[in-house]
TrEMBL record, chain A:
Residues 362-385 are annotated as: Disordered. Its main location: mitochondrion. It is found in: Mitochondrion. GO terms for molecular function: RNA binding; structural constituent of ribosome. GO terms for biological process: translation. This is Small ribosomal subunit protein uS9m. Keywords: Mitochondrion, Ribonucleoprotein, Ribosomal protein, Transit peptide. It comes from Cyprinus carpio carpio. GO terms for cellular component: mitochondrial inner membrane; mitochondrial small ribosomal subunit. Belongs to the universal ribosomal protein uS9 family.
TrEMBL record, chain B:
One of its GO terms (biological process) is apoptotic process. Belongs to the mitochondrion-specific ribosomal protein mS29 family. This is Small ribosomal subunit protein mS29. It comes from the Eukaryota. GO terms for molecular function: structural constituent of ribosome. GO terms for cellular component: mitochondrial small ribosomal subunit. Keywords: Mitochondrion, Ribonucleoprotein, Ribosomal protein, Transit peptide.
Length: 385, 402
């Protein structure tokens, strides 16, 4: 009974241990064998405890099985889509799933997805101690073994570089101008990313200490020896100006330059032709823009791109717009004008326009009305009783 | 002094700057020279203003320039005639300045050349919303006034077909409706405008208003008008009588003293043939013919008299049941109106061109109306051009808060 009790407890410990939490658990072996009256306990009691412990965590076998199923499923999917199973990449998988299971859900994360189990199941630590309960890692009892072991590693590397420096000095080959690591265009990993890497929670103070240590490593002249190690902890920043498609500049029979562009805002679609003719006429849907947009605000929206570039009276605009209301139509036209202007303007100006926010398509659309509420956000009158 | 000799010696094409450079030593001299240069040479300030106050002498030379309406004329001629925003502008700027524009000049030239022994010519000013039709009409009316014509001016016919509080069944005819308030108001304004004619014109027949009131034949028109002003009940019929008298006697060259030319000016002509928003007592819609005032004005529009001119302007802004994009005579007048008014001389009014916009802008600058510092720069001017598309009324509203 006691033995079965031990086994039961051990199974609980097993499950606890497979959570990422390392708390000191006393070994059941040292419990003295006291005469204990056997209480008949049904397995439902164990089950209740298990549920209180936390959600079902995944064992390594489980994950391996998932990986196998994923690979097999990938081959099946490739066959279904009529493509080569050997060269079936993740993008192809995403494309096929989107085709086979079309979903109109707004939240992209709610849509059906088929990814490698490593990306789906959260990373979890393996069991930190052996069958007798002795922890594997020497820093287990610090509570944060991965973090401190990382700090130890970095310090080891610092010491190694110092030894290398001394060797070079002894040989007389010491130079300060050594190959430096290129750090522009990248940043240190954030605290959340470090946590993900270490599969451990660390505090802000710990994070700052780690970064300080890395900076110390970087400050040494021969740090290029550890370049690979350091770059593991740096993340490349995205390109400053994401490439915008500049519409091609065309010439009509009279030699006047013009460009065509589209714009959208909240169900309104606009398409315009920007002509470099030297007058400031604007015709929309065949009518003068003064008739289309009697409101000053809409005309100011139209004026903004041209005014920003300083070419107000230079262009002729001929456009068509449909859908939505007057404000959305003005916004769609503004986007279209900014896009068309890109082909008349220099590179630096393109960057300026992008930073002014003229090229960003406004993603806001009408929010859906939910059942049980009056509108998207408004609730019914709340009655206390 | 030597300042006068200086200004007469130097040729007027020398720029102001040059003169200022020459006489930079004494500040007093600078001020004096400034005053001199304004009168002697065509510097930018006078590009938008002209000293020619009489519309008779306005010509193409003056297009785009502002001339000042004398205050006395404004009071007499336009007690109700000018657009409300323009009246506010007069009050703010302390002067009433009107721009000389091609449509008005065209109209005035036609008036000058017309033969007044024949039936009157009908002129219709048409154009987009806010392009200046009423202002051109006022300009032409000012010309008529300075020439000594008798003015019959209906400032906005739309006011007679909507928002009428009192609609009385007519005393004289059973199927018509009277509008006493509007009629008496109009008679008062008519009196102010045409004071000097009221004693000269005599009635040609007897008018019986009620059992006790009547106007005999041969009475001066002033009495008729007073009758209408005092007795509200019969004021609409009085209006009809006045118009009839004027029709009969206009251009009558029989007596030298009584000869006068008649100018009938109607703004918002499309109201006469459109729909009304007035309801009769049994909740059916009123037709325009059933209103006495409208009926009488329609009779004036016919060219079966002689010795005058009919100047009209269409207006979409006050019109009922017409889409905003309609501005052509055929659209706004409708079939019936068009047939009635045909043949007419159409005069189109459009947005400002470059020169006119320039002078309007300079005028506002001169009056310190554009307070925003950015509006004085070239950039600001381009912005104004874009936002208003050189439409006079929109430009005016835009500058109002700058």
């Amino acid at each position: 009974m006691a033995a079965s009790g031990c086994r039961g407890v051990r199974s609980i410990l097993w499950k606890y241990g497979s959570c990422g939490k390392n708390f000191c658990v006393s070994r059941s072996k040292t419990v003295p064998q006291l005469p204990v009256r056997q209480i008949c306990v049904s397995s439902s009691l164990w089950k209740k405890n298990l549920a209180a412990a936390g959600p079902q965590k995944f064992t390594q076998e489980f994950i391996d099985k998932q990986v196998e199923e994923f690979e097999v499923g990938k081959r099946h999917l490739a066959n279904m889509m009529g493509e080569d199973p050997e060269t079936f990449t993740q993008e192809d998988i995403d494309r096929s799933i989107a085709y086979l299971f079309p979903s109109g859900l707004f939240e992209k994360r709610a849509r059906p997805v088929m990814k490698h189990p490593d990306e789906i199941f959260p990373k979890q630590t393996a069991i930190q101690w052996d069958a007798e309960g002795r922890p594997f890692h020497f820093l287990f009892y610090t509570g944060r073994q991965s973090y401190y072991s990382l700090l130890h590693d970095v310090y080891e590397k610092i010491l190694a570089i110092e030894r290398h420096q001394d060797k070079m000095r002894n040989k007389g080959l010491f130079t300060s101008e050594t190959k430096q690591i290129l750090l522009t265009g990248s940043r240190w990993l954030l605290k959340e990313e470090i946590e993900e890497y270490l599969v451990e929670n660390i505090s802000d103070h710990d994070y700052v200490r780690l970064i300080q240590l890395m900076e110390k490593l970087l400050s040494m002249p021969y740090c290029s020896l550890e370049e690979e190690f350091i770059l593991k902890f740096r993340k490349q920043l995205e390109a400053q100006s994401s490439k915008h498609e500049i519409p091609a500049l065309q010439y009509d029979p009279q030699g006047v330059a013009f460009s065509v562009a589209d714009g959208r805002r909240k169900t309104a679609k606009a398409s315009i032709t920007l002509r470099d003719s030297g007058s400031g006429n604007i015709t929309i849907n065949g009518r003068n823009y003064l008739h289309c947009f009697p409101l000053l605000q809409d005309r100011e929206q139209l004026m903004f791109p041209l005014h920003f570039v300083g070419m107000l009276g230079r262009f002729d605009i001929e456009g068509s717009v449909e859908g939505s209301g007057h404000s959305a139509q003005a916004g769609a036209l503004r986007l279209a004008i900014s896009r068309a202007l890109l082909s008349f303007v220099s590179e630096g100006e393109v960057e300026r326009i992008r930073q002014a926010g003229l090229l960003t398509a406004d993603p806001r659309i009408r929010e859906r009305k939910k059942p049980g509420q009056e509108g998207a956000r408004k609730k019914f009158t709340w009655k206390k009783r | 002094m030597n300042l006068h000799k200086l200004s007469s010696r130097l040729c007027p094409t020398v720029t102001q700057k040059f003169r200022h450079l020459q006489i930079q030593s004494r500040g007093q001299q600078l001020e004096a020279v400034g005053v001199e240069t304004e009168s002697t040479e065509q510097n930018p300030l006078s590009v938008f203003r002209t000293s020619e106050q009489d519309p008779t002498y306005h010509s193409e030379r003056h297009t785009g320039q502002y001339y000042t309406l004398p205050a006395a004329h404004i009071q007499k001629l336009f007690p109700h005639g000018l657009p409300p925003r323009f009246q506010l502008q007069i009050k703010t700027f302390n002067e009433g300045c009107v721009m000389v524009r091609p449509p008005a000049l065209e109209l005035i030239s036609y008036l000058k050349k017309a033969d007044y022994s024949k039936p009157p010519l009908r002129y219709i000013l048409y154009g987009d919303v806010g392009t200046g039709k009423t202002m051109c009409l006022s300009h032409a009316l000012h010309y008529c006034y300075t020439q000594g014509w008798l003015i019959v001016h209906i400032s906005d016919a739309h006011l007679w077909v909507k928002n009428c509080k009192e609609l009385l069944p007519s005393s004289s005819r059973p199927s018509r409706f009277d509008q006493p308030i509007q009629a008496s108001q109009w008679l008062k304004n008519f009196k102010i405008t045409n004071e000097r004619f009221l004693s000269k014109i005599k009635t040609t027949q007897q008018y019986v208003w009620t059992k006790r009131e009547r106007t005999e034949k041969g009475q001066p028109l002033g009495e008729l008008v007073d009758q209408g002003v005092n007795r509200m009940k019969s004021s609409s019929d009085v209006v009809g009588a006045v118009l009839r008298e004027l029709r009969l006697q206009a251009g009558g060259a029989t007596e030298g003293e009584g000869a006068f030319k008649l100018a009938v000016a109607v703004d918002g002509l499309n109201a006469l043939w459109g729909k009304t928003s007035l309801k009769k007592e049994d909740r059916t819609m009123c037709e325009p013919e059933e209103l006495t005032l409208i009926h009488n004005v329609r009779k004036m529009m016919k060219n079966n008299w002689s010795g005058g001119a009919i100047l009209t302007a269409l207006s979409q802004t006050g019109s009922l049941f017409k889409p905003q994009s309609a501005y052509l005579p055929s659209e706004l007048l409708g079939e019936e109106g068009f047939d009635n008014m045909e043949p007419f001389v159409p005069v189109s009014v459009s947005n400002y061109n470059e020169k006119e916009f320039e002078s309007c802008y300079l005028y506002y600058l001169d009056r310190n109306w554009l307070q925003h510092s950015h509006s004085r720069s070239e950039e600001g001017k381009k912005e104004l051009i874009f936002l208003s598309n050189k439409n006079p009324s929109i430009l005016e509203r835009l500058c109002a808060f700058l």
